[in-house]
Amino acid sequence: xxxxxxxxIKRALPESRIxxxxxxxxxxxxxxxxxxxxxxxxxxxxxELDAPAEPLPAEEHRLVARLATGRFDAAxxxxxxxxxxxxxxxxAYLAGIGVRVGQSKEFGGGVLTKWVRKLxxxxxxxxxxxxxxxxxxxxxxxxxxxxxVDERVRAEMDLMLSANGISPGEPFIAMAPGATCQxxxxxxxxxxxxxxxxxxxxxxRLVVLGGPGEVPLARRILDAVPLASAVSLTGVGGxxxxxxxxxxxxxxxxxxxxxxxLAEAVGCPMVILFSGTELESQWQPRSTxxxxxxxxxxxxxxxxxxxxxxxxxxxxSPTEVIEEALAMLQRxxxxxxxx
Length: 339
Description:
Blueprint: H1 3-12, E1 19-22, E2 38-41, H2 57-70, E3 74-77, H3 86-94, E4 99-104, E5 114-117, H4 125-134, H5 151-163, E6 172-176, H6 188-202, E7 205-208, H7 215-224, E8 230-232, H8 238-248, E9 251-255, H9 258-266, E10 270-273, H10 280-283, E11 290-293, H11 318-331
Parallel strand pairs: 1-2, 3-4, 4-5, 6-7, 6-9, 7-8, 9-10, 10-11
Helix pairs in contact: 1-4, 5-8, 6-7, 6-11, 8-9
């Protein structure tokens, strides 16, 4: 979601050097962002869900020293609707960074040199990020998500697909059953049933995708379909490899997760099981064909990590999901050879 803002900064200031301060997980997307010149990977305290068992001030002093070493002219602090820019802005202040820009609803003293008032919470995250630089006078010529996949990565993933019997130009369905938390995941048994029936109805191969921690979910899908109908590339190629595979896929079937955003950036049509944890307006694909499936529930948006209500927001039968997937494939004019 940060890519459009970085792209427009680089377009306006082509000689500038952009350093991305990112978490270990967030840094995995950096190779896809050609506007980034350097990445600083930090597990910052303000991004942790829980407070440490005891204070570790030496870690924060080390971060400030690292920022000071960079001799940065400015710190642009991009946050989601629920995050505060003030902790990182204070670190930047201590590091001697003279220009510190962030969006907030709350007063934060003098830690920000430019306090940008936030847009409403329902604003799309890409637009919220662009709003920050627009308030600084940067022109925005394009708002769509965009990534750049290295040719070497693309070639490696093409070889991997070929080794698994998927030839260049052959249509296939990508499936990503994982998500960052339980409250965003469609029931894996239903997901596996969708996979089994889609393979039979379409005649297309299935490619299961995800991070290393999602291998068990991929195995559940592979166990449900005939051996020749599906392959797992889960945990292979990292985020750049995932983007390369999605660029070739005819359809993505996934939860509200990273693959959804990558699919939008590379133009892969998708059907998304979008749980009630978030507002669709904040994260939904806008420039790529997508069908978001969610049952209306009084608890949405809950912003929770675990659901105590049987995931009513994703109570869709496999048949309903399959119908949406077939409609999207038909819309994309994909040739089907199944039953």
